[in-house]
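EI: anyone free to look at a 254-residue chain?
SC: sure, send it
EI:
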Amino acid sequence: MSDLAAAFDRGAANYDLLVSLNPGYHRHLGSAATVLVRRALARRTGARLLDLACGSGASTRALVDAVAADRPPGRTSARTPAEAPVAILGVDLSDGMLEQARRKTWPAGVEFRRGRVGDLDLDSLGEGAWDGVLACYLFRNVPPDERDAALREVARLLAPGGWLVVQEYSVAGSPVARLVWDLVSWAIIIPLGVVVDRNPGLYRYLWRSVRGFDSTGAFARRLAAAGFEDVRHRTVPGWQRGILHTFVARRAAR
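SC: here you go
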């Protein structure tokens, strides 16, 4: 895992540029963030949101934008006369990615912290303190034999009835999705990693990690085993259909 963090540190400076070349990347992040924000703010207006594997802050920005869209300036709220602020904490293992995130301009209530999912400081973060957790492109980076424990850890962070939204690549069990992923990886993603970032190892790892991740059904079963209910998943439109998936799950109320 330290080698992976070092690879992301090395690629941090060019990461935003590379992901911006992926059609739909920010749109799909925004869709996942909107799903989480709507559910979390339905629980309480002063929601606390955790962005795990926040990277350079793209998913954090998606959360900020989703909150702003849910409560536009000047709107009279039926919830409370003055809506409580939303707190967002981004957590990532890569110091380089966190440095990129902190350089950006953020509204009050947004903070960043270093941490490794599966070995988080639950006392510091607060067990049961979070209304929603967003985890984009995280769990395929967690070793398979640690994945169940990592999901149980996330469940412990959520308040009873809190929501988890996971956005992740999965091609297992779909020969067509695997073929498309292989072609795009070797024809576009890895060459761009060489030309733009001179860091091909990170993007070859991306290709391998997606091929080795759980099927959507297997990951849904992991979520249920970790204590989540109402588990749902759907794929995205566009070229990543059948490749990129959004999972939505709720921590059991008790």
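EI: Residues 76-81 have pLDDT under 50 and may be disordered.
SC: 👍
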